Description:
By secondary structure, the protein is α/β, with parallel strands linked by helices. It has helices at 16-21, 51-60, 76-90, 108-111, 116-132, 143-148, 204-215, 219-226, 231-242; strands at 2-7, 26-36, 43-47, 64-70, 101-104, 137-142, 159-163, 177-185, 194-199. The chain has an eight-stranded mixed barrel. Helix 3 links the parallel strand 4 and strand 5. Helix 3 packs parallel to helix 5 and helix 7 (204-215) crosses helix 9 (231-242). The longest helix is centred in the middle third of the chain and has 17 residues, at 116-132. The protein is globular and about 60 Å long.
Amino acid sequence: xxxxxxxxxxxxxxxxxxxxxxxxxxxxxxxxxxxxxxxxxxxxxxxxxxxxxxxxxxxxxxxxxxxxxxxxxxxxxxxxxxxxxxxxxxxxxxxxxxxxxxxxxxxxxxxxxxxxxxxxxxxxxxxxxxxxxxxxxxxxxxxxxxxxxxxxxxxxxxxxxxxxxxxxxxxxxxxxxxxxxxxxxxxxxxxxxxxxxxxxxxxxxxxxxxxxxxxxxxxxxxxxxxxxxxxxxxxxxxxxxxx
Length: 243
């Protein structure tokens, strides 16, 4: 079990080295969003203002990084459009994103009137597009959506990140649960409280350690592999190959 956080522009400036020293080993960073009707001028397809800063600084602090998109699509066509924008943004930092490219599914405003099957098809279309772009899709949502607004049988092959603010780990999605957002709290390096998560997965540090122990490769080779642009993904693939 790993300790992690999820952040966006609303968290302000983050001292990621202090975050790392506080025991946080992974972060899910907001990258993009579909629509926003809460501005003086409505927005469509935009990037979080601190996305690049957060990804770069978290990665440099040796924190494993994932990203997410806030979904507002009300049709499959809009879902594909939002997914394409999301992947076009995150592809520029592919070498720093070792975890999932998640879709945040919780927007009652834009999903209003959709049936469970319609919303599930929209979410699946988004995730399929993300997977086609070479990223690992994930769904962020909550128990209310899982029970009453989504047809989970259509999404059960996709990794899940569930918001469930409780001391009891949710069991709604079984072993597909990879991240549990369990509450809100204070973390060093972030002025305000932030969302707290537990992760049920291996990080690049785990992959690297396992490969080194299993293969006995020398430090010179380790250093060479670490300098590779897509080192995080390479270590994960090497780990899976020897597992």
